[in-house]
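Lecture 7, part B: from sequences to assemblies.

Below are the input chains for today's worked example.
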Amino acid sequence: MGQEAIRGPEPGRQTLWDWRAAGNFSFGGTGTSLFVFAALAGLRNPDWLRLAGLPALVLVGAGLACVGLEIGRPFRSLNVFFRVRSSWMSREAWAAAALFVLGAPAAVFELAWLAVAAAVLSLAMLYTQARMLQAAKGIPAWRVPAVVPLMLVTGLCEGMAALGVGAAVLERRAAAVAAGLAVLLALRLWTWRNYRRALGEAGAPRAAIAALDALQRSFVIAGHLLAWLLLATWLLAPEAARAPVLLIACLAALLAGWYLKFVLVTRAGYDQGFALQRMPARTPHLSPAGSVKPGW
Amino acid sequence: MTRYAMVADLRRCVGCQTCTAACKVSNSTVRDIQWRWVLDIEAGEFPEVTRTFVPVGCQHCAEPPCVEVCPTGATGVRPDGIVFMNYDTCIGCGYCAVACPYQARYRLEGKGYAYATPMETERNGRSPLQLGTVSKCNFCSDKVDAGRKRGLVPGVDPEATPACVNSCIASALYFGDINDETSIVARLVRENETFRMHEELGTKPSFYYLWDKKQ
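Predicted structure of the full complex, as structure tokens:
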């Protein structure tokens, strides 16, 4: 919960997981997915492994560094490996460690098949991150099962967008990246709407719903419609203008994904609050008022 | 097998926060950390308005989500149902706190004291060894264990009973072994209408709220 000592029964915004936790989900999601796409691209052109695989690992490392900045006892961080049987955070740590053990040599020495093995671990880490959020039962906006596909697809979308940034900057052939990004954007929009509907059905604090609804416009318009429009423009643009157009489209898709995670973790991270199933019957055998659930 | 539980009689609680203060002094919790506190809930619309005082804190769940998510094993459930913290292992990631639906967990930050000069409880509570770790109510387990060793009965003998229960001026809080049919908590739950908070989340709390006598 937040660190406020005195509070009312309404749900309060948790403050323990702040932008640093969101950073782990953002950089980790982008990095793991970018590594997957780098490994796939590396099967045809092994130099992608170094060009995109190494930055992917840097992104994953940046996400983990964010966690290191957030935890209260960073020098004990090796303890995070202890509870792999039940904790998705432990599983994330193991997947990350294995990813670096296989992924770093695969990227540095451009070993395509080793990179594919590391990509499997990369996907596993992305999955653990999604499940980690869902396992936080105290936060209604996170515990909805629909958050898992949302986090997975958002991560993949960010990874493809990051690859697109690389393709635009390096002026590489980018048709496959643009097509992949267009499809993933559609999937992300679908999982977002699915998540939002599921959250409405499951119920959540009003403030959490409001925070997510406030995100709707920028996320959908800038992160999807604008990105699609730019991708369509890219198809028709003259050769000289194509790279900047692709770059802007990919940045819009990437930043929208990061913003979604930031809002989900911080602004929509309202706790359960308190509820009474029945009010006390102070006059014996006189039926008291029914349930009360402030803030919902 | 023993399973400790707490009962709060909502008809009796007057919201005096004596339990809050007793917990604070007994466990040396510092500013911003309150393992036991009492909510003040107003409901309804004028003129049909009710006001209810609700003691809250760790519910010592039988299926605690905090224990499941903890990546270090720093938190766990004792055989007698008390959910504990091991401050030497905790890394302060806060995952347990966001997994807890009862807002019962706090990370001890290096913030200042309530006043310019630290009170005794604040001096005792802000151990450098605990800084950055997460803390929570432990049903005064040290006291319970020490009392049991002396042959005392938790929930009956004050020396073996949590501070909040001992201090309650309205006899609204009770503690004991819910599996012992002769204990006060088992009897209260048997003879009264009760609910447990957020039961729908499957946490199986060991904290019962009484709201009426059984018809």
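Note for the exam: Chain B has one domain: 4-213. Keep this in mind when comparing with the next example.
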